[in-house]
Design brief:
The protein is about 25% helix and about 35% strand. By secondary structure, it is an alpha+beta fold. The chain has a single domain, classed as Hotdog Thioesterase (Thiol Ester Dehydrase, Chain A, Roll), CATH 3.10.129.10. The strands form two sheets. A five-stranded antiparallel β-sheet has the order 1-4-5-6-3. Strands 2-7 form a two-stranded antiparallel sheet.
């Protein structure tokens, strides 16, 4: 399974809220998908210079059609997480984001908590698979170094 993190890798920080944890006092496993979403949203905003809101204004939504997570260690309330996001596959109607989430330790080191990916499709409001707008593909190719 390809979980590579090609450049550029974007970092987002997130402090775990009490409500993110389960009865065992650790982050509920499903919340990592929300953290993936946070990383993906900030990747698009910071590197691509577009927001999901702007994409939606063009009549498109980008649902997750596949996801995977490999859990390595737990996070707990008040932990500072570093969410790393990159795109490792770009097609006309979908893209694959890769993620690594680590805990920032008091000594400055990081402990890997989870790694994974999502595949997001480009669909119109009726749910029909639709090509990404040419302007978005162009921006992504420039960021990924596939076009000058």
């Amino acid at each position: 399974m390809n979980l590579s993190m090609p450049e550029p890798v974007h970092q987002t920080r997130y402090r775990v809220l009490y409500g993110d944890t389960d009865a065992a006092g650790v982050v509920y496993y499903g919340n990592y998908m929300r953290y993936f979403e946070l990383g993906r949203t900030e990747y698009m905003r910071d590197l691509v210079r577009t927001s999901y809101r702007e994409i939606e204004k063009q009549g498109l939504v980008l649902p997750v059609i596949e996801c995977y997570a490999r859990y390595k260690a737990p996070a707990a309330y008040d932990d500072l997480l570093v969410i790393e996001t990159s795109i490792n596959e770009l097609k006309n109607v979908s893209c694959r984001f890769s993620y690594r989430i680590s805990r920032k330790e008091a000594d400055g080191s990081q402990t890997l908590l989870v790694k994974g990916f999502t595949v997001n499709a480009s669909v119109d409001r009726s749910g029909k698979l639709t090509k990404f707008p040419a302007s978005l593909i162009e921006k992504l190719k420039i960021i990924l170094g596939k076009e000058k």
